[in-house]
Amino acid sequence: MSGRRGLGARWRRRRPLRTRLALATSAAVALVAVGVCAAAFVVIRYQMTRQLDLNLAQTAAEVTQRSRDWGPSAGDTNCRYQAVPCVQIVPSDPARDPDKAYAMPVTDATRQVADGRRAAYYSALTVAGQPVRMYTTRLPHKDEALQVALRSDTVQRGVRQAAGALAAVGGAGVLLAAALGYWVSRSGLAPVARLTATAERIAATRDARHRIELPAGPPGREDEVTRLAASFNTMLGELEQSVTAQRRLVADASHELRTPLTALRTNAELLARADRLSAAQRDRAAAALGRQLREVTTLVNDLIELARDEEPQPLVEQVRPAGLLEHAVRTAREHWPEIAFTTRIDPAAADALLPGVPSRLTRLLSNLLDNAAKFSPPGGPVETALTTVGGALELTVRDHGPGIAAADLPHVFDRFYRADAARALPGSGLGLAMARQIAHAHGADLTAEAPPGGGSLFRLRLPVP
């Protein structure tokens, strides 16, 4: 048994989904059609037989009214079984039987009905080569049984005709079910076929720009397959953006690394001929080599940090943003002694706690402060504040430098993006991109804006659980 089931399962797995759906739909509709025809046949046969039984019972009642003075009889001329009923009366005692032979069979059941030991009953038999339906009942106040018979060949013929008609209808229903199953499988799975073709085309060409054509219709009334295709298109869009971002990252990284690597190679080759250089030249070349190594190391570390999509869960702990901000500002003062950093912390936010990775949040704040200090004029202020707004913590960093141009504002968080005014300044163009990624990994939102009065303002909203 298990072998047959396994064989059937393998056969189903080897068939295409369209074939399996067509077979399942056809089988379901065919089963319903055959079931309805079978039920109709049973009902028709029952009703025709019941109508014949009612005619027999009605005839028996009429004969009972007329046969009060009759005695046992073996039948009459009506027993030729034409369109009229045949009637005979049978006593319970065989000694009272008439001399003439009975036209219809007389059994012990007939005698039992005559003396009241058995209830009336219907029976089907063959008399004189003809099928008949006979009703046997007891005459009231007499030990005699009344037998009334009618030919049943007309009923049987009608039942056979009904069976033939229903069989034809059932066969047509099966054929219609097959056609409907094929149509349903083709129309219902058409979006799935398009989805499969698109997926295969993407797998073959590795081009995520392909999309599945969606049927036109009112929004909000799409079926499940259309929603699946729309979700697949959305996934393809995300994949295309991811591939594009990956390619852009690789291209930008290679572009950014080309210059320092070239300088490293030049200085390394220069130091390889140190015997031809003076002591001052060797010191300058060594210092430049060390500075370029630090730049390349920082750039590679930034790229590794940006490649991570989320924070490692084992490193998440409860942190106090106010303490992180104070620490980041102290470090920035040591790094940028010519910049005046100020900090304002709302008392309601001073002791707030939220889950996060302290080192990563510190890196976020350091990047924002370094960016503000880099664009601030010497002696210019960099203002930081931590407040509570609408149940969330809001941290702001503002400088009073040249600000962000309106054309650059949508791109300040892009990787390797630099405004025209920042191309001569040090840095790789990854600091703000890394800051936004860290913010998103902590469920926060980091935005940039141009405040009134000049400069730039970065706003970090941290959700408090």
TrEMBL record:
Residues 186-244 form the HAMP domain. Its main location: membrane. Its EC number is 2.7.13.3. It catalyses: ATP + protein L-histidine = ADP + protein N-phospho-L-histidine. It is found in: Cell membrane. One of its GO terms (molecular function) is kinase activity. InterPro entries: HAMP_dom (IPR003660), HATPase_C_sf (IPR036890), HATPase_dom (IPR003594), His_kinase_dom (IPR005467), HisK_dim/P_dom (IPR003661), HisK_dim/P_sf (IPR036097), Sig_transdc_His_kin-like_C (IPR004358), TCS_sensor_his_kinase (IPR050428). SUPFAM superfamilies: ATPase domain of HSP90 chaperone/DNA topoisomerase II/histidine kinase (SSF55874), Homodimeric domain of signal transducing histidine kinase (SSF47384). The chain crosses the membrane at residues 21-44. Keywords: Kinase, Membrane, Phosphoprotein, Transferase, Transmembrane, Transmembrane helix, Two-component regulatory system. Pfam families: HAMP, HATPase_c, HisKA. Residues 252-465 form the Histidine kinase domain. This is histidine kinase. It comes from Streptomyces celluloflavus.
